[in-house]
Specification:
With 338 residues, this protein is α/β, with parallel strands linked by helices. It contains 10 helices and 15 strands. Helix content is 25%, strand content 25%. α6 links the parallel β11 and β12. Keywords: Oxidoreductase.
């Protein structure tokens, strides 16, 4: 069992970028950690998640459910680790595995109430950092996949998308199409994750590529990107199509880091074809997380699903890991092992 440290290391924002953040806008600093106070536990983080939404939080995108990040703030996000120390009377004990939102540091003082004990439902603790509950919730609560549906997943090689296509298939989809900007990612989506076809983002209009991949149209959209890809999906929608919007990467990863990505919608066609267009957030569906964890654990153990992820070693590498994520250099979920 690990012992309590005198110092912890954490990643802080040091300056606001004029465009997308890069390693020069962050610093890894040492900070003293006191013993846990009443209601706190000290956790040694084993892994924490690197996620694109940090780009919108830096400087303060309006309306986001998470707090904005300003110079001097420590970054945060999902993490898994083990309890190192806890005050007398705490329900958590040293050695307990937990998940929490105090990532981007090697040790964290965490309110005990903000820790979720890990019970072994998932075979690997890192799998608790997979954002698959977003895909699962959107595809079960909003899109209601029906047997034989043609499903389009935009941003299919990302953390959500790399699970979404597999989940869609397990829920009964007949044809699953993805989008990505990289030929090597497209090949992996087909060969490893079971996508039927992939539309490459590139110089040609996305709508033309989608028309080739789905000549009969699409029934369901799981959208991580918005922008041009959402507009093309609207044009390819079949009667009664269900669209679940979970991300806006085309805006979040743009130079101005805006969360939004404006799309021109032909409202007349939406009405005529009975298209539903709904946004998904986990906070609106609090029952999904536990349901997803149970099903994900079963699918992992039976090898019905794969969890593509990259582990980056060392907290000093975390700022570069974020830049590499922004640049599309990774496939699936990206985590740091501090």
């Amino acid at each position: 069992m690990a012992t309590a440290p005198f110092l912890a290391r954490e990643v802080r924002l040091t300056a606001l970028p004029s465009g997308l953040p890069s390693p020069e806008h962050f610093a890894v600093v040492d900070v003293p950690l006191p013993a846990p106070a009443a209601g706190q536990v000290l956790v040694r983080n084993r892994h924490f998640l690197v996620f694109a939404a940090l780009c919108s939080l830096i400087g303060g995108a309006e309306g986001t459910p998470l707090p904005a990040l300003h110079p001097g703030d420590t970054l945060f996000g999902p993490a898994v680790g083990e309890v190192v120390a806890a005050p007398d009377g705490s329900a958590l004990r040293p050695g307990d595995a937990v998940a929490h939102m105090y990532g981007w540091r090697d040790h964290a003082l965490v309110p005990a109430a903000a820790c979720t004990p890990l019970d072994g439902t998932l075979p690997d603790p890192i799998a608790h950092l997979a954002p698959g509950s977003t895909a699962y919730g959107a595809l079960t609560r909003l899109a209601a996949i029906r047997p034989g549906d043609t499903v389009l997943v935009t941003g299919a090689a990302g953390a959500v998308g790399s699970l979404a296509g597999q989940v869609a298939r397990l829920l009964g989809a007949g044809r699953v199409i993805g989008s990505t900007g990289s030929p090597w990612k497209a090949e992996r989506l087909v060969s490893e994750l079971g996508y039927d076809d992939v539309v490459l983002r590139g110089p040609d209009p996305f709508a033309a590529g989608l028309a080739k991949a789905a000549p009969d149209g699409i029934d369901v959209l799981l959208d991580n990107v918005a922008g041009e890809q959402l507009a093309a999906a609207l044009g390819a929608a079949r009667q009664g199509a269900r669209f679940a919007l979970v991300g806006t990467l085309s805006g979040q990863l743009s130079a101005n880091r805006l969360g939004g990505a404006p799309v021109e919608v032909d409202a007349f066609q939406v009405i005529l074809r009975g298209i539903s267009l709904r946004g998904y957030t986990g906070a609106d569906h609090p029952d999904v997380a536990a349901e997803w964890t149970g099903r994900f654990g079963g699918w992992l153990r039976s090898e019905a699903i794969r969890f593509p992820h990259t582990v980056v070693a060392g907290i000093d590498s975390a700022p570069q890991a974020l830049q590499d994520l922004i640049g599309g250099r990774h496939f699936g979920t990206v985590v740091v092992e501090p």
